[in-house]
Design a protein that fits this description.
This protein is an alpha/beta fold. Helix content is 40%, strand content 19%. It has 2 domains: 4-93, 3-Layer(aba) Sandwich (Rossmann fold), CATH 3.40.50.10280; 101-249, NAD(P)-binding Rossmann-like Domain (Rossmann fold, 3-Layer(aba) Sandwich). The protein has 10 helices and 12 strands. Helix 2 (38-49) crosses helix 3 (69-81), helix 4 packs across helix 10 (274-284) and helix 5 crosses helix 6. Residues 16-96 form the Methylene-tetrahydromethanopterin dehydrogenase N-terminal domain. It comes from uncultured bacterium BAC-L1N9.
């Protein structure tokens, strides 16, 4: 039985990156659709479900991607709603790589500390999809989490969104200039930057040898987001902290991405979102 993956992208063009990874993970055929809106999902999913007997549906799966996580969440909800026993297939949401990237970062932090419970975490530029998911996962793990934003209203909106999605409280604080970072890092154990590419958010003087236990920078474009962290850092100690750069996290993220695709074809009733992807990642380390 050939492994068929239905790729639903909210973006106009479906992601070539996601297709390559899916083939490398064992998919035999990928049926790709771009520009998918919620109203399209039911018929596309039914086309995948009803052409095979229920006992064969573990060889069919749905991948939801695109550049917009909120749109991806809508597509996921529609896909799950379109299924009913025994006609179900496994489905995964990873719009713009947000889930696998956030999970990879959080699991590396957990690996470094053993446990994030009771730790204080600052997620810099935490209003985007990666930052929001990382903040939510850290909060679920028992950390006290603060996200930063350039504009207070954006931070408040993201704070509410995280609370609704993960049912966990987080705080927000403005960070409009790198010179403000040092004050926000007082007493912080975990520093995670999910800010825009090529923008230095945290100067080295703000975090080096100041009690930070783990620092993770997801920015891969110079200047890096956390000054003093190298792209390839993968758990090395710098300035008193265990640090991870974008490639140090990204290598694990790619392995996780492939493992999740493979997992979709192991059963026909799996829904992979942030929490369930995190479970898979923890099993890998």
């Amino acid at each position: 039985m050939r492994k068929l993956l239905l790729q639903l992208d909210s973006s106009r063009h479906s992601s070539v990156f996601d297709q390559v990874v899916a083939y490398d993970a064992g998919a035999d055929e990928i049926m790709s659709y771009g520009g998918v809106v919620p109203e399209d999902v039911r018929d596309l999913v039914h086309g995948l479900m009803f052409t095979r007997a229920p006992k064969s549906l573990k060889s069919s799966a749905v991948w939801i991607g695109g550049n917009n996580m909120s749109q991806g969440e809508q597509l996921l909800a529609m896909a799950v709603d379109a299924m009913f026993a025994p006609f179900t297939v496994s489905v995964m949401l990873d719009s713009n790589g947000s889930n696998t990237t956030a999970v990879a970062a959080v699991v590396k932090i957990e690996q470094a500390l053993g446990d994030v419970k009771g730790k204080r975490a600052l997620v810099v530029a935490g209003t985007g999809p990666v930052g929001q998911r990382a903040a939510g996962l850290l909060a679920l793990g028992g950390a006290t989490v603060t996200i930063t934003s350039r504009k207070p209203e954006q931070g408040e909106k993201a704070r509410r969104s995280i609370g609704e999605r993960f049912q966990m409280p987080v705080d927000s604080a403005p960070l409009s200039d790198a010179s403000q970072a040092a004050a926000l890092l007082e007493g912080v154990d975990i520093l995670l930057n999910s800010g825009p590419a090529g923008v230095m958010m945290v100067p080295q003087t703000a975090w080096a040898n100041r009690g930070i236990k783990v620092a993770v920078d997801l920015n891969a474009v110079s200047p890096l987001g956390i000054e003093g962290v190298d792209l390839n850092d993968a758990g090395v100690t710098r300035h008193g902290a265990q640090v991870y750069g974008a490639f140090g996290v990204g290598n694990f993220k790619t392995k996780l991405h492939k493992r999740c695709i493979a997992r979709l074809f192991e059963a026909n009733d799996i829904v992979l979102d942030a929490e369930t992807i995190a479970d898979i990642a923890r099993g890998m380390v």
